[in-house]
Amino acid sequence: MSEPLQIFIAYARKDANFLDELRTHFTPLERSGKVKIWYDGKIEPGKVWEAAIKENLHSADIILMLVSADAIASDYFYEKEMTNALARHNSGTARVVPLIVRPCAWQATPLGELQALPRDGKPVSTWPDRDDAYANAVTSLLATLNSIRMERAAAAEQAERERNQTAEETRRQQESAAAAAQEAERRKKEQEQAAEKQRQL
Q1: 117-122, long-range: CB < 8 A, 24+ apart
Q2: Using an 8 Å Cβ cutoff, are 109 and 133 in contact?
Q3: Which of 97, 118, 126, 142 yields a CA-CA distance of 20 to 30 A from 69?
Q4: Model pTM?
Q5: Burial of 140 from C-beta contacts in 10 A (0-12 / 13-18 / 19+)
Q6: What does the pLDDT look like over 44-89, one tens digit per residue?
């Protein structure tokens, strides 16, 4: 089985109940070994919390941002987590996915350029049944996870082809150099033999 992909969850304290509900819906994916979920509640005692957040945010494959008015109003969420997440997203080293948990003007933020969850960016709190909202979000994330795996597999195959081509080219160059050396040695011997015959005349 391939290594599980890492999902980092950023959220505001006032949205902790949404985080708890979402984690429950992630349980099947975690148990299958497909993903590992990280959020600040997993910081070990004695760890520097900001360093732990930064480390896990920078190693995540998907950065899931639980968006609400409180999250947008949070300086840490907006200026640190979102800024760093979008920098990784723009560099192609991670995917940033907004998950709208409560109605807010999220489209006015840089996250407004991204496809949001649940379906159509409809806030979780406005769904008649929150389970439907989370199920929709997790299903979409599963598709994203599969897409990332396929992209990485394709990239690995391409890298392997390039390595094989490089190795083959190196082998050919070495064979060509060896053949050239043998030919040079043969001509040298012929010249020496011709010179020796000339001396004997």
Answers
A1: 117/141
A2: no
A3: 142
A4: 0.76
A5: middle
A6: 777 787 898 999 999 999 999 999 999 999 999 999 999 999 999 9
